[in-house]
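In response to reviewer comment 3 from the previous cycle, which asked for concrete evidence that the modeling workflow produces usable outputs, we include below a single protein chain processed end to end. The sequence was submitted unchanged, and the resulting structure tokens are shown without manual editing.
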Amino acid sequence: RAAAGAPPPPAAAARPAATPPSRTRIAAGAGGGAPARGQAAIAVLTPGPGWDVVAGDDSEAPYRVGFQAVQAPPAARLTYAVVRSVPGQPDQPGGTAYLEWRAGDGGYRLSIDGVTGSVESRGQMSDTGFVPLETRQTSADGAVDTVRFDWGGARATFTASGAALQVAPDGQDRASLLLRLSGMGLGGAAQLNGVIEVQVAGSAGLATVRFERIGEEETIDTALGPLATVHLAQLAPAGAARLDVWLAPARAWYPVRLRVTAPDGSAATQTVSTFDATIDARADAKTDNKIISAP
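The workflow returned the following structure tokens.
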């Protein structure tokens, strides 16, 4: 579990030492700045890049680093059944999705492919959580956009836009965001109360993404049986896509359901169908900094 004042991660992925990395700010109540904007048509109507954050420099709502504990979950591979819905029409099956997390020897590899897009995140673990180094985001046509993090210079570089933007010491990518929420549950469930803010690197820029807990506990039906969950809803403004996340405490706080909802009410939902916690945590997990360190 993270503790305030923890030392910075190894030099290969060192973040600025002045502020502890891999933390998430919890605000006292709802609101507080403009939420990140999604891309509704992309999020629901195509298989990738999926839910995204708006490109920009976050100048309208500056992100402030907080002091909350984050703990990495155990290695696991989850598969999901996807359902697509349009108001006034029957739900339609939308294929399958997956999330795979491995961490070992100080490195991690996280792959997701589903309603939030096809994203692979590689990085390192510090004693305070996740330190993404490189993110690859694959679109429906097979094009790959890359985000590289230079923690020594506190910058993220985006191949899609050519931008190099200042990133917060605890910034995440579109994949590690999901595990950050899981890690907050593992680090202390009370951290999920109130409004959660995480700075996220999207396909072409940075934005602060905000979530709020919905209710106390929500039981959802899955292929694994009923699961008690904590439901987090993105505080997206009118006219933007919204991401909802259901975390299951009994399954190491992994996201067992994800939903992207477009402004017109159409949605894509993935719900867990298998949960494999027997995978080799070390396989393909060690980071090769010669390949994925920032240029």
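Residues 71 and 234 are 22 Å apart (CA to CA). We consider this sufficient to address the reviewer's concern, and the full set will be provided in the supplementary archive.
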